[in-house]
Amino acid sequence: MARIGVSVSEAARQLGIAHSALRYAERRGRITFNPDRSVNVALVRKPLQKNTDPSRQNNNGRMKNPPSLSSRGIAAHREMQAEYQSKMARLDYEKEARLLVSRDAVRKAVFDSVRRVRDQLMSIPDRIDSIVAAETNERRCNRIIADEIERALNELAGIDV
What we know:
This protein is mostly helical. The protein folds into three domains: 8-61, no CATH class; 70-100; 103-157, no CATH class. It contains six helices and no strands. It has helices at 8-15, 19-27, 41-51, 71-96, 103-134, 138-157. Helix 1 packs across helix 2 (19-27) and helix 5 runs antiparallel to helix 6 (138-157). It is elongated, with a radius of gyration of 39 Å.
């Protein structure tokens, strides 16, 4: 008895898919094989295209029509690669030269500075309450308070007075 179609392997080759994908589609009922287990490629092609999710196609790592790279495409790729390598080399240099600082280190330093100033500002009343209470001159009280606040703010700015 002569075969009606071609073998599964030959059909898969003609369709550009793996033979296991063809068998999988048949098991799932998306396509049917001939009674002698041969495949009629013309009858199977349309249901396969209709029922196949293109995002799930693998083609065993092969592409049916791979895009051709023009000389400009290769040049552009090489240019991008050279630019990337240049940027990475610059980053490595700046790390070695200690021109870059860690974001976490900066956050910690800012937090510590602000915490010190906050603590100093919060302790002003305890430090000067008796001095201000003993002072009868309103301008002198104002000057004492202003000097303490200025000292706390100068510490935040890193100025030693």
